[in-house]
């Protein structure tokens, strides 16, 4: 399976690429469609951007909304999830003393986003520490709900965490936030194409995710989803042709005939829309290649690799299997110089993989996609065994062997 799929990707053959989670990778047929859209734009840019863009941009919304369990009116195409979450964070009416409740597993760029918002508004971030290892849904949810107060205005959670690759069971926390009148804002950067999403059923007020990671669309394709009742709260970061001073009440029409939520965010000056327009091709590629079966194979390979490394290090996993992202897993390793280990893995073994320290835990974060193989996992285990001296029986350390 992996050898055949590997030929369908553009990943360099001299690199063992185990870091799909950071930026994704685009299959050749999808990338070809992306280039077709770019060529069409260049052949008649006035017609493409000036006369046809509103209708052209609608088609990916329809396809993606169907895939994600919502309607085209609740979703808008953007360049990345960080942008989507910034739009939300900087739109909400926060005041001094208001609290944003979040966890100690969040993506650093969004930690900075909320710090910026707090500096501007006088609100404050409250960070709850998720009990580790994460073994039960109640363990997570009870911790989140216990952190809610009458000052909590925003609940900000990752669906799949970036540093720890955990699949947070966020459903009950979102429902409790709704009952208390707390806005729920979900960072779904790693989620679309990784797990099955039913956005309307999930019920988050705001949800932003990337299509360029596990959905395998080109870089620069993402979305923001908002419930109809809260779309009127959103303001664009850039005021351009899509902006209107008309009412933002549900049912209102924007400058180009969609809702203001869509038109104000979609039409923000000249940009290359080709990545977003290629999302339907990425969805077709997944269907044509039975991607559910591919994902099941990748999930098994990821769990097996983590178990094998755990047997060599003697370190426990960060969570029960059901709370680990299916194709991405954070594997604890002994205390070491993580920067040196990352460099040595690449320089000596050509393995591209994130290695870092999260809180007090050194981590190797493994991503397994359809182009990866069991021999690559074997190489990773052997490389870590060598570089960390896991066979020596003494305290593990970075090997000095050259």
UniProtKB/TrEMBL annotation:
Gene3D superfamilies cross-referenced by the UniProt entry: Aspartate Aminotransferase, domain 1 (3.90.1150.10), Type I PLP-dependent aspartate aminotransferase-like (Major domain) (3.40.640.10)
Coiled coil stretches, renumbered: none
Protein origin, superkingdom: Bacteria
Keywords: Aminotransferase, Pyridoxal phosphate, Transferase
Stored PROSITE patterns: PROKAR_LIPOPROTEIN (PS51257)
InterPro entries the UniProt entry points to: Aminotrans_V_dom (IPR000192), PyrdxlP-dep_Trfase (IPR015424), PyrdxlP-dep_Trfase_major (IPR015421), PyrdxlP-dep_Trfase_small (IPR015422)
GO MF annotation, one: transaminase activity
Name listed for the protein in its UniProt record: Aminotransferase class V-fold PLP-dependent enzyme
Species lineage: Bacteria, Pseudomonadati, Pseudomonadota, Alphaproteobacteria, Hyphomicrobiales
């Amino acid at each position: 399976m992996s050898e055949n799929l590997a030929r369908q990707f553009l990943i360099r053959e001299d690199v063992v690429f185990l870091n799909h989670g950071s930026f994704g990778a685009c299959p050749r047929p999808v990338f070809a469609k992306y280039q077709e859209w770019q060529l069409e734009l260049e052949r008649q840019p006035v017609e493409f951007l000036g006369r046809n863009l509103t209708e052209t941009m609608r088609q990916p919304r329809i396809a993606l909304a169907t895939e994600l369990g919502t309607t085209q009116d609740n979703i808008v195409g953007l360049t990345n999830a960080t942008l989507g979450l910034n739009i939300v964070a900087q739109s909400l009416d926060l005041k001094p003393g208001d609290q944003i409740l979040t966890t100690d597993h969040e993506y650093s760029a969004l930690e900075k986003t909320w710090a910026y918002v707090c500096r501007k508004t006088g609100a404050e971030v409250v960070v709850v520490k998720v009990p580790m290892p994460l073994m039960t849904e109640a363990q997570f949810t009870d911790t989140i709900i216990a952190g809610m107060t009458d000052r909590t205005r925003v609940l900000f959670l990752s669906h799949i965490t970036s540093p720890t690759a955990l699949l947070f069971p966020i459903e009950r926390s979102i429902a409790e936030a709704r009952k208390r009148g707390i806005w729920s804002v979900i960072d779904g950067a790693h989620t679309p194409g990784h797990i099955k999403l039913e956005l309307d059923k999930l019920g988050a007020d705001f949800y932003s995710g990337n299509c360029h990671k596990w959905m395998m669309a080109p870089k620069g394709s993402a979305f923001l989803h908002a419930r109809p009742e809260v779309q009127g709260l959103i303001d664009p970061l850039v005021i351009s042709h899509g902006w209107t001073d008309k009412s933002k009440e549900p049912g209102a029409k924007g400058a180009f005939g969609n809702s203001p939520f869509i038109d104000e965010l979609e039409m923000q000056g000249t940009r290359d829309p080709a990545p977003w327009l290629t999302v339907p091709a990425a969805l077709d590629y997944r269907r044509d290649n039975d991607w559910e079966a591919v994902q099941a194979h990748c999930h098994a390979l990821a769990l097996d690799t983590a178990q094998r490394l755990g047997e060599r290090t003697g370190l426990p996993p960060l969570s029960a299997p059901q709370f680990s992202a299916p194709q991405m897993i954070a594997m604890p390793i002994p205390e070491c110089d993580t920067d040196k280990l990352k460099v040595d893995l690449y320089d000596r073994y050509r393995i591209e993989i994130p290695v870092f320290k999260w809180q007090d835990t050194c981590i190797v974060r493994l991503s397994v996609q359809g182009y990866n193989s069991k021999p690559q996992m074997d190489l990773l285990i052997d490389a870590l065994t060598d570089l960390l001296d896991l066979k020596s029986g003494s305290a593990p350390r970075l090997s000095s062997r050259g």
